[in-house]
From TrEMBL:
It is an enzyme of class 3 (hydrolase). It comes from Paraburkholderia ultramafica. Keywords: Hydrolase. InterPro entries: Isochorismatase-like_dom, Isochorismatase-like_hydrls, Isochorismatase-like_sf. Its EC number is 3.-.-.-. This is Isochorismatase family protein YecD. The gene is yecD. Residues 10-177 form the Isochorismatase-like domain. Pfam families: Isochorismatase (PF00857).
Amino acid sequence: MALTTLDAKTALVVIDLQRGIVALPTVHPASEIVQRSVVLLDAFRRHGLPVVLVNVAAGAPGRTDQGRHTGDFPAGFADLLPELKQQPSDHLVTKRTWGAFTNTDLAAYLREQGVTQVVLVGVATSIGVESTARYASELGLNVTLVVDAMTDMNADAHANSITRIFPRLGETGTTQEVLDLLESSRA
């Protein structure tokens, strides 16, 4: 873990903390991931930094070996958790692919806000979080991955993302490390 700094204009991007996703069996208790994410949400909002809440409402078309959900999800599946306390100032991104940038307005929104760094949390580590991190990195954004505020449905996939992929896409750290940097850089 090598979290060094937060840029002046850093956005928190919360991936798929919604009813249908957190109801799935995960490696780490979803309640702990939600709790840590809420702490970060509160801190980013308190400091007037951009907050992006991402949900997934459908699957992308195409064939895979494991099959793919290509239609709409059941009613309520995409509803954000009430614990996130969605605010009018939060930017909502509804995606239909793994990553939060593809076919959404996320890149344009971050550009308009002058964001140079994103802090990512959510579910699933190897799917929505990793796909979003890859795209953010490709856009030239500084990427911070809060590894104790994310989980996956597969332990091996989670570990692979955290140990092999994320260190190549950005900096990794804990919720407390992000909070400490947020407080010290905004004091």
